Amino acid sequence: MGNPLSSGNDLNVGIIGCGKIVEQYLTNFRRLESINLVAVSDLDSSRAQAVADSYDGVRAVSVEELLAANDIDLVLNLTIPAAHAEIALKAIAAGKSVYGEKPLAATTSEARQVLEAARTAGVVVGCAPDTVLGTGIQTARKAIDDGLIGAPVSATATMATPGHERWHPNPDFYYQPGGGPLLDMGPYYVSALVTLLGPVVSVVGAASHTRNERTIGSGPREGQQVPVAIDSHVTGVLVHASGALSTLFMSFDAVKTKSPNIEIHGEKGSLVVPDPNHFDGEVQLFALGAEDWETLPVSAGYVDSGRGFGIADLATTPAGQEPRAGGELAFHALEVMESVLESATSGKAVSIGSTAHRPAVVPLTELATAVRA
After folding, report:
1. Which residue of 24, 136, 203, 212 has the fewest C-beta atoms within 10 A of its own C-beta?
2. Could you tell me if residue 58 is inside a domain?
3. Is residue 370 part of a domain?
4. 194 exposed, middle or buried (CB, 10 Å; 0-12, 13-18, 19+)?
5. 186: domain CATH number?
6. Full-prediction pTM beyond 0.85?
């Protein structure tokens, strides 16, 4: 399938969902000459109007009006995860391409419907996280491709926090089905591991939780108890098609980790990879026979990037190629995470039915040039 967005013209974007995350996209859209924000919508019309008032040339409209608009090429879906599939399917039915916040959908069943509908309609699907396109993950990826660690053998990916209720005023979602540390933060880590090491063919998982209630630590509900209905600590082993093994450690029960967020180990060296929830950061190499860690020069990725760069990258994807932050990778990451949780319940290894092309390296690129009001 060709890319209906790669015409060389500016990409006209409409946003559905104007919650807190929208500010990060707006900041970067002002810096990206190829992105033309046209309209915004939210169930709370005052939030949409506030965005429109802050951004020149943008109109606040209803969801129905935005989907029907002829001057919008792509819908940026920033609704809650439970609504991701519904909004994506409506946008696709209206003939528009879609880029969504993670996850692609609440379940792989819903996500499959989105991809099938887009394929039939001939439109493009992209999905966060686009952190994998920044200089941090991309410099590490180039180091692997350049053979600096030899054949990759294993990886570890670690996320430890005592729980979002300590800072989030309404943390209930994180402790209900569909929440938890893996589904919340796992997209960053799994997408990075697939970008670095390629697709996953099977997983084994285990999970636990330390307590049945959490205490809200801030905001108007401070001191209230939140019930815990999910496992708040998840560990998984991912078997990559390459033979490399990755170990996931995702926890709302641990206090802190001193270890790096991701380490990649190969026959000739080891890499420290920066936080996959960030776009930049130092990549360090310890080569076989070396005496100390070496910080590698930035060598790949979008310089000074942020949320929204995945949309600009998607618009330049050559016809017939899957976008780097595309629906295929997002679906594969979602299936991997669902399967880790399934394995934790069943006690058995789970095969992964989907696959994803290991996205091409992003050449070192300064993409952001404009600053708009």
Report:
1. 212
2. yes
3. no
4. buried
5. 3.30.360.10
6. yes
